[in-house]
Amino acid sequence: MEKIIVTGSCGFIGFNYIKSLDENHEIIGIDSLNNAYDPKLKELRLEQLRKISNFKFLKIDLSQQSEIEKNKKYLEGAKTIVHLGARAGVRQSYLEPEKYIRDNTSATVNLALTAKNLGIKNIILASTSSIYGDTGNNQATENKDELSEPPSIYAATKGFGETLIKSVFSEESELLKIGRFFTVYGPYGRPDMSILRFVHWIATNEEVIIYGDGQQRRSFTYVMDIVDGLNRLKQYNKSDTFNFGSNTTWSLIEIVNKIENYLGKKANLVFKERAFRDVDVVLPNLNNSKDKLDWEPLTNIDEGLKKTIDWYKNNESYLEKIKFKYDYEK
User: Fold this and answer.
1) CATH class of the 2-184+220-246+282-298 domain in this structure
2) Which distant-in-sequence residues (6+ apart) come within 8 Å of 223 by Cβ?
3) Nearest to 288 by CA among 180, 142, 181
4) Rounded CA separation 256/279 (Å)
5) What pLDDT shows up at residue 324?
């Protein structure tokens, strides 16, 4: 049985990734269960994970090396670390920068040093499309230049996390694979991201808040396509950086219209001032992922939205308790 450590195990992507692993894995899930968004959703995911017989959960704040040391015995013998634990969100990073520096840089270094100490040779690091900023008419391609002028505090902490882990995990025998994810959505998604918020607000007849004119375009990527990418990264035997995203972009207004059609309800749109440093277009170049991993997104937006909305309907009574609006949203 192969031992694998998954950080951010109760997060959106971590939860779905763990669910994809078979019984031949001994899974160690690590999460701090912080309140970056409503922890009730993390608790719902954890409740599902505890039903997996080969899963063990450790509540650890990875920014605190002392907490890692206390639980080190559970990490020994692991072959792979999938580091999905992070604090996400461009807007919130300007309000709480110290938390982003702690969770996206210090935690990453601590984990890398622990892996080195334990002889774990295979690390997958989740990074973000936010590193690229606004791509305009171009496709975002993996290189070093995008890390030199980060477009936001969030992007800076994730980019620096990439740089720091490379400085620690740099021996020829060590494999470091970085996946940069583009606007992920799907079942058990984050309540601070647009698609699930739109679904909830329209379903419950609440105001649908859009910052700006709604013409911002995103590469919305279904979570199981990201999970497929992670599984391919796990098997890849070279260090490299890859984009994982959709090769088609959709505007926020177009997404709202699709959700309206699926739910048979009209959105009560409320337009507010454009968020600071919000970008117009984010579109990935997928050549590296396709050529080296044979990966490309398979779930189109209509199929992905239907699966997300079906999941929402099946869990609507629980999701009514989740906070979809945050203190900074007046």
Assistant:
1) alpha beta
2) 12, 13, 16, 184, 185, 186, 187, 188, 189
3) 142
4) 18
5) 87
Note the pLDDT tens digit of each residue in 233-278.
Answer: 999 999 999 999 999 999 999 999 999 999 999 999 999 998 877 8
Q: Give start and end residues of each alpha helix (H) in the chain.
A: 12-20, 39-49, 65-70, 72-75, 90-95, 97-101, 107-118, 153-168, 194-203, 223-235, 252-263, 287-293, 301-314, 316-319
Report the predicted TM-score, pTM, of the whole model to 2 decimal places: 0.96
pLDDT per residue as tens digits for the range 175-233: 999 999 999 999 999 999 999 999 999 999 999 999 999 999 999 999 999 999 999 99
Q: Do residues 56 and 45 lie in contact, with contact meaning Cβ atoms separated by under 8 Å? A: no
Q: What values do phi and psi take at 79, rounded to 5?
A: -100, -30
Rounded Cα distance, 283 and 249, in Å: 7
Q: What is the DSSP string of 89-104?
A: -HHHHHH-HHHHHIII
Q: What share of the chain is helix, strand, coil (3-state, %, to 5)?
A: 45, 20, 40
Compute the distance between CA of residue 28 and CA of residue 3 in angstroms, rounded to an integer.
7
Q: Which residues of 228-241 are buried (b: 16+ CB within 10 A; e: fewer)?
A: bbbbbbbebeeebb
170-182 burial code (b ≥16 CB/10 A, e <16)? eeeebbbbbbbbb
| Cβ neighbours for 101, distance < 8 A, ≥ 6 positions apart | 157
Q: Are strands 80-83 and 122-128 parallel, antiparallel or unpaired?
A: parallel
58 close to 30: Cβ distance less than 8 angstroms: yes
Catalytic positions, written as ranges: 154
Shortest CA distance to 204 belongs to which of 267, 152, 111, 144? Answer: 267
- For residue 18, the SS3 value is helix
What are the structure tokens assigned to 179, written together? 């996946």
Q: Which two tokens stand for residue 117?
A: 């100490």
Q: Find all residues with CB under 8 Å of 178, minimum gap 6, and list them.
A: 124, 125, 127, 162, 240, 241, 242
CB 129 within 8 A of CB 219: yes
